[in-house]
Design brief:
Elements (H helix, E strand, L loop, with lengths): L4 E5 L10 H11 L3 E5 L10 E4 L5 E5 L12 H19 L5 E4 L15 E6 L8 H6 L3 E4 L2 H7 L6 E3 L15 H4 L8 E5 L9 H10 L4 E5 L7 H6 L5 E5 L6 H6 L3 E4 L15 H8 L2 E5 L12 E3 L5 H10 L1 H4 L2 H12 L3 H15 L5
Parallel strand pairs: 1-2, 1-5, 2-4, 5-6, 6-7, 7-8, 9-10, 9-12, 10-11, 12-13, 13-14
Antiparallel strand pairs: 3-4
Length: 366
């Protein structure tokens, strides 16, 4: 593997909250691949920059865009320009890529520009649906995280495989500061919701009702938010809510160790497909503690792992039941079952599945 060069094309920058494409890059590099993580194009940049990361074999790439309004060009001309751009990128870096791994479908989406290289299209979000036909049909093999996405890709490529989200164990956990430690109320139950608190998918009504009804419970809302956000505006006066703001990902496992109950509260009736497989569930499960969740399709056959509701209107009823029987829901046996499932979903194991499928259906030279 040491001589395999991989270009990962990402819609998010390297210096951003690390999600699936970042974790795959880190895991690939740990296995001996040379990995180049391409940030979104920078229109003002006129030369390629290759930057070291903290990981061996993993480099961050900044590069100019191919040209403005590229999607408006005729297909043949667009492919010609993208091929020239790729060859120039390789020349500047001093290597030729063996694999193009595409997580993007709004700017780069027709993988024909990669010519004879191994072409992978990997879709991790249902709402990332800009040029699905071109991206999937031009790939040698496709991967996705839900049955809904698989359904959308299969008409254009028969080599489509579902590999669910992973969890990263390579980053060391960070310790809490004294100020952060003091946020936990040891005389009450501590409950957490983690994620972007301004996201349109959040069911603010559920969280508002919970925090209002259970004023004796401490709720930790962990993630970025704005004063103009709906959730903050309706809950800002409540004394039992701790607003953490955005925290480093390495702090999340440490925080969850101190939490009694984790929450997943989404507008699933409106956004069922987009919410079919939240990556944060694995982080919740790895803590061992009970999770109360609105309906999540990819866990419909794993109900032993979380307290999932088919009917969101019964969320408060379930929360009440869990609070009154917390010793049962957080028993050693239940915690161990959740932890073992999360451990079996590491990015290392997910990558093994990806590589096995590539070797089976495309090439054994990887």
């Amino acid at each position: 593997m040491n001589n395999k060069q991989i270009l990962i094309i990402s819609p998010e920058q390297w210096k951003w909250q690390h999600v699936s494409k970042h974790h795959y890059a880190i895991t690939l590099a740990s296995k001996g691949f040379k990995v180049y993580f391409l940030n979104p194009p920078i229109s003002t940049l006129n030369q390629v920059k290759m930057l070291d990361t903290q990981y061996q074999n993993l480099y961050e790439i900044e590069a100019p865009q191919v040209t403005k309004g590229l999607r408006l060009y005729p297909k043949r001309l667009r492919n010609f320009m993208e091929k020239a751009w790729l060859k120039k990128l390789e020349k500047n870096i001093g290597t030729k890529f063996d694999i193009i791994w595409l997580f993007e479908n709004s700017r780069f989406y027709d993988l024909n520009f990669a010519e004879d290289r191994l072409k992978i299209y990997h879709q991790v979000d249902s709402n990332q649906n800009f040029h699905i036909k071109e991206a999937s049909s031009s790939a040698d093999i496709c991967f996705c995280v839900t049955d809904f996405i698989k359904r959308d890709l299969l008409p254009y490529n028969q080599k489509v495989f579902k590999i669910t989200h992973g969890i990263n164990f390579t980053n060391q956990k960070s310790s809490l500061s004294k100020t952060q430690e003091d946020r936990f109320n040891h005389n009450s139950i501590n409950v957490a919701y983690i994620g972007n608190l301004d996201m349109i998918y959040i069911n603010e009504d559920i969280l508002y009702k919970l925090t209002t009804k259970y004023s004796n419970i401490t709720f930790h809302f962990i993630g970025s938010y704005s004063p103009q956000g709906t959730l903050y505006k309706i809950c800002k006066e409540m004394k039992n809510i701790i607003w953490w703001g955005r925290v480093e990902s390495t702090l999340i496992p440490t925080i969850l160790e101190k939490i009694d109950i984790s929450l997943l509260a989404y507008r699933v009736d409106e956004y069922r497909e987009q919410l079919a497989n939240s990556h944060k569930i694995l982080e919740y499960l790895y803590s061992g503690k009970v999770t109360i969740a609105t309906y999540t399709d990819e866990y419909k056959d794993k109900r032993h792992l979380l307290e999932m509701l088919d009917d969101s209107d019964k969320y408060l009823q379930k929360f009440d039941e869990v609070v009154k029987n917390l010793d049962f829901y957080n028993s050693k046996e239940k915690q161990q079952e959740r932890i073992l499932y999360a451990e079996d979903s590491s990015y290392e194991k997910q990558l093994e599945k990806v590589l096995l499928l590539i070797r089976k259906y495309i090439t054994k030279e990887i």
